[in-house]
Amino acid sequence: MARDRRSHHSSGFTLLELLVVVVIIGLLAGLVVPRYFDTVGKSKAKIARAQIDALEKAVEQYRLDVGRLPTADAGLSALLTAPPGTPKWQGPYLKKGVPLDPWGNAYVYTLSPDGREMDILSYGSDGKPGGDGDASDISLATAPQ
Predict the structure, then answer these.
(1) How far, in Å, CA of 1 to CA of 36, rounded?
(2) In whole numbers, what is the pLDDT of the chain averaged over residues?
(3) Distance of alpha carbon 41 from alpha carbon 30, whole angstroms
(4) Burial of 18 (0-12, 13-18, 19+ CB in 10 A)
(5) Adjacency order of strands within the sheet including 108-111
(6) Domain 37-139, CATH
């Protein structure tokens, strides 16, 4: 009978063993989770750059057809519906609607005062101009070539 008691008491984990396992899991999570979220942030920036590139190509096709860039007032919606006074419009220039950036915000379209240069940008995760890291702005000018 003495053997039965010993085997009964030795089955299962001690409190110390459980604490060691919990500490190890906590340390691993502390190392892995930040890297995971950093990778997710970088992936969203890559998606934004790809979408900006696609929007730029659509705007350039618009420019070839119409002879000028969309006005600042018409913005990227000019890629979907013909603005007034654009008889050469051949769109829509996008298959689906104008996408939102990976953070759920609208892309910003800007036009230079002379109407010859444009920029398309995302304000990043915070949706505000400027910022660092995931919150930094992504645009045609900042996209790696």
Answers:
(1) 53
(2) 84
(3) 17
(4) exposed
(5) 108-111, 118-122, 138-139
(6) 3.30.700.10
Query: What pTM did the predictor assign?
Result: 0.69
| Whole-angstrom distance, CA of residue 40 vs CA of residue 94 | 27
Ranges of each domain in the chain:
37-139
pLDDT grade for 143, boundaries at 50, 70 and 90: very low
pLDDT digits (tens, 9 = 90+) for 39-90: 656 788 899 999 999 999 999 999 999 999 999 999 999 999 999 989 999 9
Q: Whose CA is closest to 93, among 61, 67, 66? A: 61
Rounded to a whole number of angstroms, the CA Rg of the chain reads 27
3-state secondary structure at position 145: coil
Per-residue pLDDT for 5 more than 70?
no
